[in-house]
Design a protein that fits this description.
heterotrimer, A mainly alpha, B alpha/beta, C mainly alpha, A: two-stranded antiparallel sheet, globular, B: alpha/beta, Rossmann fold, 2 domains, seven-stranded mixed beta sheet, five-stranded parallel beta sheet
């Protein structure tokens, strides 16, 4: 019974009511969570589904953010073009970097992803003319919501929303679409092959699969969606900064993925929700957030390696088994 | 009967107003409290906290106490934006004071602009914060900016009997901007000057020796440096044994607060005595204005430290200026306060300071001095301290 | 054309930097070679070694040799910490996915960096050169501080001592065997777990020693843990993960790249370490002296 309820759809619809039902601040928090959920899910395509641990996924996030930022702020391009452009540039860089990365395995792969990400960061940090250098590009314009406001004026009960609320709705729709696409990818034969590769790359080679090409494809898809997340984040954050590509961002998203559970599709999104909420709660009490985060991480690694989703799944399984026996 | 009812009505109406009057004035304080910037952010916060404590003891501002809400930005502009939004939207702060780095300042400025909340930047030096295309009614700055710092340094160096000048600065916005201001101004003041070498170690460089060697090979007669904090300490520890300071005969000017008591204390006997440097404040400035000596006496007691931190004044001044503006506006409405800030003159511990109307920049003086040993203190001090009034080179 | 004394000075500064890096990277390489994990927390041990040296110097007051005692004590404390971490925490993760081990070391980085902040605050700390090694000598027109010279000589001394221990002693043979085939070694009756702990202790000692010895030349500040670990990665990658002399060679090369890089590519030092790491991983991932990957 519980499986049949369309949870995803319910959550999606409920999310639309956040601005009306609560403080403006919670809308921002929700917006933050939604964007990071996409970022983390894109990473999980690599880590959870293909078994490729990337330490430099933030590079594509940053590239996407700068692409949208530069197009919208410096060149006045509309969001309709600037947003997909973020995905395209994320994919392109992922193609180039990924080509070299997938030739390596395990720790070497991870280190090369890190090296490329730091190079991206360094370029963003230094290229003052294009990226604004260390100070970044503050004040990326919001997309033009004039048409939406006019529609809202027509409908009853709707209206009185701010630009940031409209952006939140837009983010919801776009991220939901991206997540749906990713779900299709993961469930497709391509996605299943990725899982096969993760479990046993040699066996996959044996049956004639070009492992490297699949891995590169996964890398590019992950990079594209990370870029899209970045494009949204640059606008949301009211500015794009070089540390979007810094390795600490990569580690944050990796921890989110682990926290939520790498073994499920929805895990990373859950991890994003929990980590952002936790960060916000704890930071108001103490300046020692790294200490808290490190401890949480250790608890996770030793006690709940499957993350939250993993723990929930095994609890559900135990419940079902209990019911069957009874 | 009617009189009783009227009185009752009046009392009922007065109640919310009275309650409103008791509500504290909330000031959000985004600052670096963790990571490598914390060594500046924490003392700055303490300075602000001391001012708030003192003013509240006197009854607050407009009869209301000030409540400071500090938040850690972790030195990340992204996080600074997040905590600022949280402060505005969730904690309903009336104003924002703070930020430290040149990325945080402009980032929070955007948030302040969109939410129409007055934001006083009390440490960021970047000119970008108050540049014409970024200026808006709600952003103000009480610290000096890179133009003021670079040019004031040039004024000192112009008086030295040198023509071959070199610079060494960290390769990021602050270092680049302040060096540019220095170079432009010194060329104006002394056209015979030659910039023989410019070294740009990366921000956070751990090994300066290649840069030091390269600079010495060009045989400069004087050096301008904007290495600060721990970077300056590392630099000195590596430069001294190589005879760097002797080679330039101590014709070295270190901006970025290289002469602050914390830095001289950290280096102790290793500090290159004889160079010129600046500092935000100096508790040992016996020739300073009485207000400054008094401020430091109170700070020393508040921090329970006989050598109180020189960064605290940055936090102190930011809140001080805000409080004066609230008083002048007679309200905590950001629009009124922002108008009150224009042209506002405040009696700070360093003397009178005005917030200029044209760019919302405070006419913040800089303290320079030559570093000397002093028997009274276990570390070198700046003596005599020269207060540089920036007004003549702010444009 | 830069003159000879300048070239010599740059080469020497590159050598000094190299020896420090070797000291630190050797521990990293050792842990990777035997335990097959990249220990992010190695930078934290380096940082704790530095803070420890500062603290011991402070406590030991004045007195002859206090710097050297402080260095030794600090390195020993860090070694003990490393051993405890390995024995009670890290051992439980053996056999689990590599990612978990890596993330564990990262969690350690977070915890230890805050611990250092709690214990020593955020203000920069400094340690002076030991008396006896202040001052400098002049060679070919370049000034060489005595302390730098000491480090330049200490590096190879430790390298040789280490190598000798690995080749000739029983423990060294076990370590080399464990790097090749841990299961067989266990089957032969060697207490592999104790061996692992020992390796971790030794590596942590080296990391802490590096941190303690570097204090006269750098300021002790928060953030020094993360900045050194990336440099150590680069060195180990260049030389070849798990190769001892590879690490030494990698450190030498990297040191000179840092030194002379500013002549050919000024203002690009921010790129140099990552560009170098990427170049090596693309062209020859197993480094100069490592074993080719399957």
């Amino acid at each position: 019974m519980i499986q049949r309820v369309p949870w995803a759809l319910l959550v999606f619809v409920a999310a639309f009511f956040v601005p009306a039902a609560s403080l403006r601040y919670y809308t921002f928090l929700a917006n933050d969570v939604v964007i990071w959920a996409l970022f983390a899910t894109s990473l999980n395509l690599l880590v959870g589904y293909t078994g490729l641990v990337s330490f430099g996924h933030a590079a594509y996030f940053g590239i996407g953010a700068y692409t949208t930022g530069i197009l919208m702020k410096k060149l006045g391009v509309s969001f309709l073009l600037a947003f997909p452009a973020a995905g395209v540039s994320g994919a392109l860089f992922a193609l180039v970097f990924g080509f070299f990365c997938v030739r390596l395995t395990r720790i070497y792969f991870a280190m090369l992803t890190l090296a490329f990400a730091q190079i991206v960061w360094a370029i963003c940090f230094k290229w003052n003319e294009v990226t604004g250098g260390e100070q970044g590009m503050p004040e990326i314009p919001y997309p033009d919501f004039g048409w939406l406001e006019r529609v809202a004026a027509w409908l009853p009960f709707v209206g009185g929303y701010r630009t940031s609320d409209y952006f939140y709705f837009l983010t919801l729709v776009l991220v939901a679409a991206c997540l749906w696409l990713l779900r299709r990818v993961v469930g497709s034969p391509f996605g299943r092959m990725l899982t096969t590769i993760r479990e046993n790359p040699e066996r996959a080679e044996f049956i004639g699969v070009n492992v490297r090409r699949y891995e590169l494809a996964a890398f590019v898809v992950a990079g594209a969606f990370a870029g899209l997340a970045g494009g949204l984040f640059g606008i949301f954050n009211r500015g794009v900064f070089p540390d979007f590509a810094y390795w600490t961002k990569s580690s944050e998203v990796l921890i989110m993925t682990l926290l939520g559970g790498m073994g499920t599709f929805i895990g990373p999104a859950l991890g994003a929700l929990v980590l952002i909420w936790l960060n916000q709660q704890i930071v108001s009490y103490t300046q020692y957030w790294p200490l808290v985060l490190g401890t949480i991480l250790i608890v996770l690694l030793f006690v709940f390696p499957g993350g939250i989703a993993g723990a929930m799944e095994s609890a559900a399984r135990r419940l079902r088994r209990g019911r069957q026996v009874a | 009967m009617i009189r009783v009812l009227t009185l009752l009505l009046a009392a009922l109406l007065a109640l919310p107003i009275a309650a409103e009057a008791q509500k504290p004035i909330k000031v959000g304080y985004p600052m670096i409290l963790s990571g490598s910037g914390a060594l500046f952010g924490e003392p700055a916060l303490k300075g602000a906290e001391m001012y708030v404590e003192e003013i509240n003891a006197k009854g607050g501002v407009l009869g209301r106490k000030i409540e400071l809400l500090p938040r850690d930005t972790k030195g990340d502009a992204n996080e600074a934006v997040r905590v600022s939004r949280e402060l505005i939207l969730k904690d309903n702060v009336d104003f924002l004071v703070g930020t430290l780095t040149s990325a945080e300042g402009p980032a929070v400025s955007v948030v302040a602009k969109e939410n129409k909340i007055v934001f006083i930047a009390n440490i960021p030096k970047t000119d970008q914060l108050t540049a014409p295309d970024k200026l808006h009614p709600y952003v103000f700055r009480t610290s000096a900016n890179t133009t003021m710092e670079g040019r004031s340094a040039a004024e000192f160096v112009a008086k030295w009997p040198v023509t071959r000048i070199a610079t060494i600065s960290p390769d990021y916005a602050y270092g680049q901007d302040v060096t540019k201001s220095f170079v432009e101004h010194i060329r104006k003041l002394k056209p015979s000057v030659q910039i023989v070498d410019q070294q740009w170690p990366k921000l956070g460089e751990a090994d300066y020796t290649p840069f030091i060697n390269a600079q010495l090979a060009k045989k400069p007669e004087a050096v301008f440096s904007s290495l600060w904090g721990g970077h300056f300490v590392t630099f000195v520890k590596q430069a001294r044994p190589l005879g760097y300071f002797e080679a330039i005969k101590l014709n070295f000017i270190g901006v970025g607060e290289a002469g602050s008591p914390e830095t001289t204390k950290a280096l102790g006997a290793e500090y290159p005595v004889g160079i010129t440097a600046n500092t935000y404040d100096a508790f040992y400035w016996t020739e300073g204005p009485p207000a400054q000596r008094e401020y430091n006496a109170r700070l020393s007691k508040y921090l329970k430290d006989e050598y109180p931190n020189s960064w605290a004044i940055q936090g102190y001044m930011g809140i001080h200026v805000l409080a004066e503006a609230i008083k002048k506006a007679g309200s905590t409405d950001s629009d009124k306060v922002s108008k009150a800030l224009l042209g506002l003159t405040v009696d700070t511990p360093h003397g009178k300071m005005t917030i200029r109307e044209k760019d919302h920049q405070a006419t913040r003086g800089l303290l320079y001095g030559q570093v000397v040993k002093d028997a009274k203190y276990p570390f070198p001090i700046l003596k005599p301290i020269i207060y540089v009034d920036p007004i003549r080179f702010m444009d | 054309m830069p003159d000879l004394s300048f070239v010599f000075a740059q080469a020497l500064s590159g050598l000094t930097a190299a020896m420090f890096l070797f000291l630190i990277a050797s521990g990293l390489s050792l842990i990777f070679g035997v335990l097959r994990v990249l220990n992010f927390a190695h930078g934290s041990f380096y940082m704790l070694g530095a803070y420890g040296a500062y603290q011991f110097v402070h406590w030991l007051g004045t007195g002859p040799g206090r710097f050297w005692w402080a260095v030794l004590l600090s390195a020993l404390c860090v070694a003990v910490l490393g051993g405890l971490v390995e024995r009670f925490l890290f051992q439980r993760l053996y056999g689990k996915e590599e990612l978990y081990q890596l993330l564990f070391t990262y969690a350690l980085v977070l915890i230890l960096s805050d611990a250092a902040k709690i214990l020593w605050g955020t203000q920069q700390k400094s340690v002076s050169r030991p008396p006896g090694l202040t001052g400098a000598l002049s060679l070919f027109g370049a000034t060489i501080p005595y302390y730098n010279l000491f480090i330049i000589l200490l590096g190879p001394a430790i390298a040789l001592g280490f190598w000798f221990a690995l080749q000739r002693t029983r423990a060294g043979r076990f370590i080399r065997a464990a790097a090749l085939d841990r299961e067989t070694l266990g089957a032969l009756g060697v207490n592999v777990n104790a061996l692992y702990t020992g390796v971790f202790v030794l590596a942590s000692f080296l990391g802490g020693l590096g941190g303690a010895l570097i204090t006269p030349m750098r300021s002790v500040v928060p953030g020094m843990d993360t900045e050194v670990i990336v440099e150590a990665f680069v060195v180990v990658v260049i030389g070849g993960l798990g190769s001892f002399w590879g690490t030494f060679l990698g450190a030498l090369i990297y040191g000179q790249v840092l030194s002379f890089g500013i002549l050919f590519f000024p203002r690009f030092s921010i790129f140099s370490m990552f560009a170098l790491m990427a170049a090596v991983l693309i062209i020859r991932p197993w480094g100069l002296l490592g074993k080719p990957l399957k």
